[in-house]
């Protein structure tokens, strides 16, 4: 255990088998968000298999992702692999003329054989301009865990964003994929506060990506965007520090940080946020009855764990046993860590079997974990909430606070209901 | 590089996992990067298993690349052995670890583990899931049963007087399409013949059971994709004959009974007389008359595809218009079967090629995998699943074998269900302007699910060109015949599930006769020419 300077909360760091997805899985939500983009993984059959196992329940007319599977002969020489990639991309773009942005997504195999996808992207961009822009990023398990795939994707987008003029009025950039409905809610709140120059990254369309410059103020809507933030700062943008907009408190503090930055008067802020706060509290009252006092154990998955634990503790009254995260970005999570109760056990990284031993010993009321572990733990009599759903559900903002809590209350309610 | 939208099979190490997870007392240590643990959820979610697969991953990351990945593997293997105390271990690399060449087999040997560690060489860039399962099972059988083999040339001792004949059932694994219930159905059938099942493997077997495989009199191979290699080896080493008929469908089940009875030296009659197959009567009953000549496209693993083709023609009265497989290892069997139906086999693992052929052939029913459901949905064709890969709905709670007489009952219900019911089909042929029951609305017994006539932007893709999209007049420039508005309207009066075929035949008829504009008469001339 080592002591954390920022917060004095001890962090347990472990190494061993972990049970997290790789960054490729980010494609499953990113391809829906950016509607004219295609994600081409350059990898092995394992990568293709991962994607269809994760997304295969959806029956697609035409998915906006695919895999260029590296074969034996590609491993022979790199020059060949580049030609092969060009051929595959040409075939793909011919089949999908509606595609405007193509991401070449690096995988473990493509990185181990050192296939230079960045160079391939710039070569292909030249070949296919102006119809298609080709970018590259890594979604490999070697470099990224689960939601970090969104980070590397957005970080690749940042250098491509248009330049905002140096004398432009300050504008707000909200960074991180949000459900469309949540995005629209935040937009209305900002508008009501008088903040009108607001843009979102990623945009819903590759042609509408926001401009960025020295007068850009950005706020993270997701906690897993370390690289993206760094790239934005390289372009002169300034981060607005805040906890993440989960639950009534998180949302208020998040909005407040923006309001303060843009000089919104206190009473106007209160007036705009009051209805949302009231609705969120009303919704949470019901949830609190079901969740208060219940003991929570979270396995690392998405980096959403710490903000979620803060929300579940402070607003739903849950007791925190161990909160695991794949990666702890101290600076971006400083405001969150300050809100965690003293004595919370944080763990970064994973040794799966040892962590499961601790989990079983603690007999938590709810364990948040991945799908590979959920049913086996249920069979041991431990109630679980599978974590991936938290990334695929609208959970941010006032009007989703109770929905978010409900995701944790539902397995408990179900356990109480079933008589078989 | 191969551009893949969907893949029919996973990588070979997933095949190895299917063997390990099906068994008890075996642990698999795989050298793989962070993220490859996704494969666990195939077993815990799709198959709904209540235990973690017996698999330990090293989950190395970028920063581990270099000297210490081998050390990571050794630590993982040692810890897995201590924690799970298996009777035997499997060790291998995943695709990425294959590139960094740490040699798990050699490393495991160096550890001096207290149990046998069987190394697997899985060639991830050449081979796939079923091959991986087959190779793993073969290496396990060789490694564990090998030491029990008699000296070469030794004859099998005769079965002791009074002992019932016994066989092994080979092939069922975790994540196999209906393997769970097929085992039950076939075990019951063998029991009726007075044959005991000695070991069922890999599913349910322990490494100790594997060492005892040679004790049985013969082997029943249910899934050649997984067990043929091991069965051939057992035949060589232990002189155990094995079955060649896969008992899917009534006819094949009867042949299987005869084959097994001959191998065991028992009377086949008790199993043949059994009356629990309803398919023959259901199929003969007049309600099934309208199934005659329905045009069906079949795709899947070789075993299920070949079996389905026979059942479709001999037991449903369908016409097989397309037959294919993604199992390249069994392409020969599929080619032979296709020859029997006078069609060109499709041997491919390219989803787009399958899609193109379905669009081209205009079948009325597609029997395929989860992937063909995507294709059928897009083309608005009825579809039933006959083979892996499948999703969670095809690991049902109810008893749902494909094999034996019980399996035939399941096949009848499953394949007929997506088709338009007979009366509705007739009424549609007579009255086409009903606001509720119309061609595009889809079968009413399937509720609101209409085959989507509206397609997303993606319809611009060449493969998406479907039968019902009226071609613009401009095609005349290519020498293609043009439809007059009257003929186009008349074409719409043909029920939607055969309309694509009618369009194609009429156009072919016109092209062959140099007719540039298709009139109503051309449509009926073509109908008279081609029949039906």
Automatic annotation (TrEMBL), chain A:
It catalyses: chlorophyllide a + oxidized 2[4Fe-4S]-[ferredoxin] + 2 ADP + 2 phosphate = protochlorophyllide a + reduced 2[4Fe-4S]-[ferredoxin] + 2 ATP + 2 H2O. Binds 1 [4Fe-4S] cluster per heterodimer. The cluster is bound at the heterodimer interface by residues from both subunits. Keywords: 4Fe-4S, ATP-binding, Bacteriochlorophyll biosynthesis, Chlorophyll biosynthesis, Iron, Iron-sulfur, Metal-binding, Nucleotide-binding, Oxidoreductase, Photosynthesis. Its EC number is 1.3.7.7. The keyword Metal-binding applies. One of its GO terms (molecular function) is oxidoreductase activity, acting on iron-sulfur proteins as donors. Its cofactor is [4Fe-4S] cluster. [4Fe-4S] cluster binds at residues 22, 47, 108. The keyword ATP-binding applies. PANTHER family: LIGHT-INDEPENDENT PROTOCHLOROPHYLLIDE REDUCTASE SUBUNIT N. This is Light-independent protochlorophyllide reductase subunit N. It comes from Ectothiorhodospira magna.
UniProtKB/TrEMBL annotation, chain B:
Its EC number is 1.3.7.7. Pfam families: Oxidored_nitro, PCP_red. Pathway: Porphyrin-containing compound metabolism; bacteriochlorophyll biosynthesis (light-independent). It catalyses: chlorophyllide a + oxidized 2[4Fe-4S]-[ferredoxin] + 2 ADP + 2 phosphate = protochlorophyllide a + reduced 2[4Fe-4S]-[ferredoxin] + 2 ATP + 2 H2O. SUPFAM superfamilies: Helical backbone' metal receptor. Residues 450-477 have a biased composition (Low complexity). Binds 1 [4Fe-4S] cluster per heterodimer. The cluster is bound at the heterodimer interface by residues from both subunits. The keyword Hydrolase does not apply. The active site is at 287 (proton donor). Residues 145-166, 442-485 are annotated as: Disordered. GO terms for molecular function: 4 iron, 4 sulfur cluster binding; ATP binding; metal ion binding; oxidoreductase activity, acting on iron-sulfur proteins as donors; oxidoreductase activity, acting on the CH-CH group of donors, iron-sulfur protein as acceptor. Its cofactor is [4Fe-4S] cluster. Keywords: 4Fe-4S, ATP-binding, Bacteriochlorophyll biosynthesis, Chlorophyll biosynthesis, Iron, Iron-sulfur, Metal-binding, Nucleotide-binding, Oxidoreductase, Photosynthesis. Substrate binds at residues 422-423. Residues 12-419 form the Nitrogenase/oxidoreductase component domain. InterPro entries: ChlB/BchB/BchZ, LI-POR_suB-like_C, Nase/OxRdtase_comp1, P-CP_red_C, Protochl_reductB, Protochlorophyllide_Rdtase. The keyword Iron-sulfur applies. GO terms for biological process: light-independent bacteriochlorophyll biosynthetic process; photosynthesis, dark reaction. Belongs to the ChlB/BchB/BchZ family. Component of the dark-operative protochlorophyllide reductase (DPOR) that uses Mg-ATP and reduced ferredoxin to reduce ring D of protochlorophyllide (Pchlide) to form chlorophyllide a (Chlide). This reaction is light-independent. The NB-protein (BchN-BchB) is the catalytic component of the complex. Protochlorophyllide reductase is composed of three subunits; BchL, BchN and BchB. Forms a heterotetramer of two BchB and two BchN subunits. This is Light-independent protochlorophyllide reductase subunit B. It comes from Ectothiorhodospira magna.
């Amino acid at each position: 255990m080592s002591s954390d300077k920022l917060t004095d909360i001890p962090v347990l760091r472990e190494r061993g088998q972990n049970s997290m997805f790789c960054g490729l899985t980010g494609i499953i939500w990113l391809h829906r968000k950016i509607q004219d983009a295609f994600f081409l993984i350059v990898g092995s059959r394992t990568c293709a298999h991962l994607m269809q196992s994760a997304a295969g329940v959806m029956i697609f007319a035409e998915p906006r992702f695919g895999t260029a599977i590296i074969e034996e002969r590609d491993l022979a020489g790199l020059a060949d692999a580049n030609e092969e990639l060009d051929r595959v991309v040409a075939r793909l773009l011919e089949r999908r003329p509606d595609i405007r942005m193509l991401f070449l997504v690096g995988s473990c195999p493509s990185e181990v054989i050192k296939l230079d996808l960045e160079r391939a992207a710039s070569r292909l961009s030249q070949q296919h301009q102006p119809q298609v822009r080709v970018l590259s990023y890594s979604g490999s398990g070697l470099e990224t865990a689960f939601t970090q795939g969104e980070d590397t994707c957005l970080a690749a987008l940042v250098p491509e964003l248009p330049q905002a003029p140096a004398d432009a009025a300050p504008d707000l950039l909200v960074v991180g994929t949000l459900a469309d409905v949540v995005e629209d809610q935040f937009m209305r709140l900002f508008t009501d506060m008088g903040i009108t120059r607001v843009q979102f990254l990623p945009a819903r369309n590759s042609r509408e990506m926001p401009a960025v410059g020295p007068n850009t103020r950005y706020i993270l809507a997701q906690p897993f965007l370390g690289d993206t933030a760094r790239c934005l700062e390289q372009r002169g943008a300034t981060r607005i520090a805040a906890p993440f907009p989960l639950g009534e408190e998180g949302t208020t503090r998040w909005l407040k940080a923006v309001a303060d930055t843009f000089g919104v008067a206190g009473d106007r802020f209160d007036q705009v946020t009051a209805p949302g706060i009231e609705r969120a509290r009303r919704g949470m009252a019901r949830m609190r009855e079901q969740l208060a006092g219940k003991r929570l154990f979270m396995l690392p998955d998405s980096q959403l764990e710490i903000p979620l634990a803060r929300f579940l503790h402070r607003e739903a009254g849950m007791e925190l046993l161990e909160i695991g995260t794949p990666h702890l970005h101290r600076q971006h999570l400083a405001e969150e860590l300050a809100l965690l109760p003293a004595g919370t056990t944080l763990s970064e990284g994973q040794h799966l079997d040892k962590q499961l031993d601790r989990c079983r010993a603690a007999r938590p009321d709810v364990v948040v974990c991945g799908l590979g572990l959920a049913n086996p733990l249920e069979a041991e009599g431990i109630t679980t909430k599978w974590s991936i759903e938290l990334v695929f559900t609208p959970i941010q903002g006032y009007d989703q606070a109770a929905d978010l809590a409900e995701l944790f209350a539902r397995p408990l309610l179900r356990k109480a209901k079933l008589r078989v | 590089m191969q551009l893949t939208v969907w893949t029919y099979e996973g990588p070979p190490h997933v095949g190895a996992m299917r063997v390990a997870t099906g068994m008890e007392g075996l642990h698999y240590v795989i050298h793989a990067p962070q993220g490859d643990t996704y494969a666990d959820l195939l077993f815990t979610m799709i198959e709904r298993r209540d235990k973690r697969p017996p698999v330990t991953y090293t989950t190395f990351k970028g920063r581990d690349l270099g000297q210490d990945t081998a050390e990571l593997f050794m630590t993982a293997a040692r810890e897995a052995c201590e924690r799970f105390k298996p009777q035997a271990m499997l060790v291998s690399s995943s695709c990425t670890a294959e590139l960094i060449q740490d040699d798990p087999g050699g490393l495991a040997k160096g550890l001096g583990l207290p149990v046998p560690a069987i190394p697997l060489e899985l060639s991830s860039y050449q081979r796939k899931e079923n091959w991986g399962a087959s190779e793993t099972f073969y290496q396990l059988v060789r490694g564990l049963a090998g030491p029990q083999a008699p000296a070469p040339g030794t004859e099998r001792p005769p079965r002791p007087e009074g002992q019932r004949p016994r066989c092994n059932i080979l092939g069922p694994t975790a994540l196999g399409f209906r393997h769970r219930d097929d085992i039950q159905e076939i075990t019951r059938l063998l029991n009726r013949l007075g044959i005991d099942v000695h070991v069922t493997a890999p599913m349910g077997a322990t490494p100790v059971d594997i060492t005892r495989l040679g004790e049985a009199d013969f082997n029943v191979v249910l899934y050649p994709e997984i067990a043929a290699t091991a069965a051939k080896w057992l035949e060589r080493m232990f002189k155990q004959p094995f079955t060649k008929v896969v008992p899917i469908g009534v006819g094949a089940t009867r042949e299987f009974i005869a084959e097994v009875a001959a191998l065991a030296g028992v009377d086949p009659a008790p199993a043949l007389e059994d009356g629990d197959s309803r398919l023959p009567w259901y199929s003969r009953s007049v309600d099934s008359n309208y199934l005659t000549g329905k045009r069906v496209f079949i795709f899947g693993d070789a075993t299920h595809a070949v079996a389905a083709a026979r059942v479709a023609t001999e037991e449903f009265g369908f016409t097989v218009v397309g037959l294919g497989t993604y199992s390249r290892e069994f392409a020969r069997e599929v080619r032979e079967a296709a020859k029997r139906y006078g069609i060109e086999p499709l041997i491919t693992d390219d989803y787009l090629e399958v899609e193109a052929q379905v669009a081209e052939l205009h079948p009325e029913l597609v029997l395929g995998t989860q992937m063909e459901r995507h294709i059928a949905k897009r083309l608005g064709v009825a579809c039933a699943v006959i083979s892996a890969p499948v999703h969670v709905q095809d690991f049902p709670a109810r008893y749902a074998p494909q094999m034996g007489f019980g399996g035939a009952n399941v096949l009848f219900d499953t394949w007929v269900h997506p088709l338009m019911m007979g009366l509705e089909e007739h009424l549609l042929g007579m009255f086409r302007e009903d606001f509720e029951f119309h061609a595009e609305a889809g079968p009413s017994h399937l509720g609101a699910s209409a085959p989507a006539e509206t397609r997303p932007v993606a319809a611009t893709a060449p493969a998406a060109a479907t039968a019902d999209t009226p071609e613009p007049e401009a095609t005349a420039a290519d020498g293609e015949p043009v439809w007059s508005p009257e003929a186009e309207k008349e074409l719409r009066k043909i029920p939607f599930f055969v309309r694509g075929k009618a369009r194609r035949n009429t156009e072919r008829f016109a092209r062959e006769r140099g007719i540039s504009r298709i009139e109503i008469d051309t449509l009926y001339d073509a109908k008279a020419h081609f029949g039906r």
